[in-house]
Structures are given as C-alpha cells and as structure tokens.
C-alpha cells in the first residue's frame, strides 16, 4: 500500500522458540540478581546505620563507597541496553523494516515497512537517549547528595570522627546521697549560688 510505506497486510514474523527460551532465562537471571542486590543493599544499610550512631563522618565515607558501587551496577547495564537499543533503531531505519532482517522475535510480530518502520526506529532511538541520560543523571544526583551530607557533617562540631555521640538521658540526672534523683537543669536552678548569679 502506497509503495510499501505502511504495514504489510497479513505479513507476520513468527516467534523464534530459541529466542523465547533465551529471553525467559534472561528474565529469571535478572530477577535472581536483583533479589540478591536488594538483600545485599539492605545488609549494607543496616551496617551503615550502626556506624552512623557512633561516627557520622565514617558513615558518610562508607555511603560514598556504596554510591560508587551502586552507580556502577546501575549505570553500566542501562548504558549497555541503551547502546543496544540505538543500534537496533539504526538497523530498523536503514532497512526500513521492523523487525529488521535477521532479528529473532519472541512472539508473532506484524512486519512494518517504509515510513511506519522509520517512525518506530525514531521513537525507539528517542527512548534510548532518555534512558542513557537517566542512567548518567542518577549517579550524579546521588554523588551530590553524599557531598551535601559530608559538608553538613563537617559544619557540625559534633559530627566529626568520634564526636557524633549524643548525651544519654541518664547523663541529665543528678543522684542524691540520701536517695532519689533530680534533673540536672532543675538541680542547677535550686543551687543558691546559681540563684545569686541570676540576681
């Protein structure tokens, strides 16, 4: 129809059983890797919480290392997938056919030719560019968050190494020899010397 510029009527590319099995295997592997990554991340975050209670500066350093590994594990696969998608878009645009010649599909797919195929290629290329930008932007944003936390710890006098502890509630209690206890602030107000200073 119109010089072959639209979808080929009734032309279907049959699914490839081998490609379908490979795709299913890839999904299973990715699910297992994702579950392991989530479990490991949770364990790291639990350890990071313990470190933060003792030493905020050390926690920020550990968080920076985690962000580096997370960025690599997240960014590189997405960039690789975006590169594959851009290459596929180029093949579609060059052949003016979707799916391009030689590409196996996992389900029966209507064949597009001409303008329809080129439009599909351009849409795919745009999505892959957005994916690549997102893959680069997230590590940059996470790095900036860590830098902001580091700056906040440096500005906080009690946030340095060994100085991130907060006084416990018990440290604010004054014990009396005869028994009983009084909050330290109230005991200070009852002290005659302190009352004299206030006058």
Short précis:
With 199 residues, the chain is mainly α. 67% of the residues lie in helices and 10% in strands.
Q: What can you see in these coordinates?
A:
With 199 residues, the chain is mainly alpha-helical. The protein folds into two domains: 7-159, no CATH class; 170-198, no CATH class. It is 67% helix and 10% strand. It has five helices and five strands; from the N terminus they run βααββαββαα. The protein has helices spanning 17-54, 56-95, 115-155, 184-190, 192-198; strands at residues 7-13, 97-98, 109-113, 173-175, 181-183. The strands form two sheets. A three-stranded antiparallel beta sheet has the order 1-3-2. A two-stranded antiparallel ribbon has the order 4-5. α1 (17-54) runs antiparallel to α2. It starts with 6 loop residues before the first strand and ends with a helix.
Low-pLDDT segments, ≥5 res: 1-5, 159-172
The number of helical segments is 5
pLDDT averaged over residues: 78
Give the strand tally: 5
Query: Main beta sheet: strand number and arrangement?
Result: 3 strands, antiparallel
């Amino acid at each position: 129809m119109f010089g072959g510029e639209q979808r080929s009527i009734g032309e279907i590319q049959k699914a490839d059983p081998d490609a379908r099995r490979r795709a299913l295997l890839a999904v299973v592997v990715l699910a297992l890797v994702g579950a392991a990554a989530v479990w490991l991340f949770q364990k790291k975050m639990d350890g990071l919480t313990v470190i933060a209670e003792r030493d905020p500066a050390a926690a920020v350093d550990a968080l920076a290392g985690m962000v580096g590994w997370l960025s690599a594990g997240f960014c590189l696969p997405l960039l690789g997938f975006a590169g594959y998608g851009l290459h596929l878009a180029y093949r579609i645009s060059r052949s003016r056919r979707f799916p391009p010649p030689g590409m196996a599909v996992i389900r029966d797919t209507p064949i597009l030719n001409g303008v329809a195929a080129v439009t599909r290629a351009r849409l795919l290329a745009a999505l892959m560019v957005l994916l690549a930008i997102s893959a680069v932007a997230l590590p940059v944003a996470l790095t900036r968050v860590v830098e902001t936390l580091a700056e906040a710890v440096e500005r906080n006098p009690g946030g340095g190494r060994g100085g991130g502890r907060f006084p416990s509630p018990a440290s604010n209690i004054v014990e009396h020899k005869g028994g009983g206890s009084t909050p330290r602030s109230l005991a200070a107000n009852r002290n005659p010397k302190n009352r004299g200073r206030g006058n």
